[in-house]
């Protein structure tokens, strides 16, 4: 008979401020009959974690909760209906609808995969959420075809890098944007010799459209078949105008709306005012104009597919068939330094995935 497992977690009872995220002792119940218990080694951070902690993410639980959407580790125990010989001791990585900021986690096997032998735990926890986001956006919604032209915002981020890897498999042409010139050096180190790939600074927004058109002309193209927009803000309408007729603008994030600090209702009223101003300035469009322009705007959040297990695994299987290289892990922090790790991600200065490492004693 399995016993409850003592563990450490980062939990939050009141959203709005990063300081409300507290390091706590917790007791994990034995895994249910169709679950396994994973001893977590690494946790991948996502922008959704920031939005959840600050209370501006609609999927956030209303009660006290543990953030975190993806993890990697080793199966330490199994429920009575799970094949012990198949799963016990296996290195795995997986996704969860919150609950990932923990040293141990119970999960159904439908939400975990065996970690490839050549991948580190850090690489494994950096793959699922962002890889499936990139693939779902490009293939499921964007209907990506070989040799099409695609604009990828935040190309040096976790989703952006995996999107570029997928586009390379399809021999697509891609223009990627970044917020800092040093990130162009990172991208050129991998794709600089590929004439189908080009990278530009996102700022200043006022002449972004002209600079993007210039890069398109160099490629012999007039617009984009697909635009991956994770920033919105001042770039939304240029993105729309740059999308070809019959093209698709895929919106899956709003980094420009990410609060720079906490959203405590009293002592950071200016953050609320700034966020409210951005919210009221958000893009508004006329569906009739979309018909006339013959373009599509599609928005998605992969977390809403979480309970559609067959579809989720179908996307994963297609993604796996591409045999991508392991993702780039740009920054690693001890589990105890979750505040510092989130602040780095929040700053927009990270490259690749930001990962938390757990040292079990």
TrEMBL record:
Checking InterPro entries in the record gives: ADH-like_N, ER, GroES-like_sf, NAD(P)-bd_dom_sf, SV-ATPase_mito-regulator
User: What PANTHER family does the annotation carry?
Assistant: SYNAPTIC VESICLE MEMBRANE PROTEIN VAT-1 HOMOLOG, SYNAPTIC VESICLE MEMBRANE PROTEIN VAT-1 HOMOLOG-LIKE
Organism for this UniProt entry: Ambispora leptoticha
Keywords for the protein's UniProt record, in alphabetical order = Oxidoreductase
Q: Which residues fall in a coiled-coil region?
A: none
Q: Which residues form the Enoyl reductase (ER) domain?
A: 16-356
Q: Which GO terms describe its molecular function?
A: oxidoreductase activity
One Pfam family name from the record?
ADH_N
Q: What protein am I looking at?
A: 4240_t:CDS:1
């Amino acid at each position: 008979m399995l016993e409850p497992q003592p563990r450490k977690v980062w939990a939050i009872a009141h959203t709005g401020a990063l300081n409300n995220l507290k390091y706590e002792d917790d007791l994990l119940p034995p895994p249910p009959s169709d679950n396994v218990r994973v001893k977590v080694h690494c946790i991948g951070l996502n922008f959704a974690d920031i939005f959840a902690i600050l209370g501006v993410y609609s999927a956030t639980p209303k009660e006290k909760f543990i953030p975190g959407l993806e993890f990697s580790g080793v199966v330490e125990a199994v429920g009575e209906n799970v094949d012990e010989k198949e799963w016990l001791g296996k290195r795995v990585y997986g996704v969860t609808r919150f609950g990932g900021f923990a040293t141990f986690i119970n999960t159904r096997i439908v939400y975990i995969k065996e970690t490839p032998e050549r991948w580190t735990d850090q690489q494994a926890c950096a793959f699922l959420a962002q890889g499936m986001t990139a693939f779902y956006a490009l293939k499921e919604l964007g209907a990506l075809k070989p040799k099409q032209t695609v604009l990828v915002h935040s190309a040096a981020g976790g989703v952006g890098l995996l999107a570029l890897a997928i586009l390379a498999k399809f021999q697509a042409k891609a223009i990627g944007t970044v917020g800092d010139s040093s990130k162009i050096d990172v991208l050129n180190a991998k794709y600089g010799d590929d004439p189908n790939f080009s990278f530009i600074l996102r700022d200043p927004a006022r002449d972004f459209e002209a600079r993007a058109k210039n890069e398109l002309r160099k490629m012999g193209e007039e617009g984009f078949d697909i635009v991956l927009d994770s920033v919105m803000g001042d770039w939304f309408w240029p993105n729309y105008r740059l999308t070809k007729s019959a093209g698709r603008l895929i919106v899956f994030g709003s980094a420009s709306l990410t609060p720079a600090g906490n959203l405590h209702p009293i002592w950071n009223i200016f953050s609320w005012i700034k966020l409210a101003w951005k919210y009221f300035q958000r893009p508004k469009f006329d569906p009739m104009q979309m018909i006339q322009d013959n373009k599509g705007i599609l928005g998605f959040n992969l977390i809403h597919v979480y309970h559609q297990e067959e579809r989720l695994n179908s996307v994963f299987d297609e993604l796996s068939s591409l045999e991508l290289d392991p993702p780039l892990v740009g920054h690693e922090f001890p589990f105890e330094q979750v505040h510092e790790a989130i602040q780095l991600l929040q700053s927009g200065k990270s490259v690749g995935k930001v990962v938390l490492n757990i040292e079990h004693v």
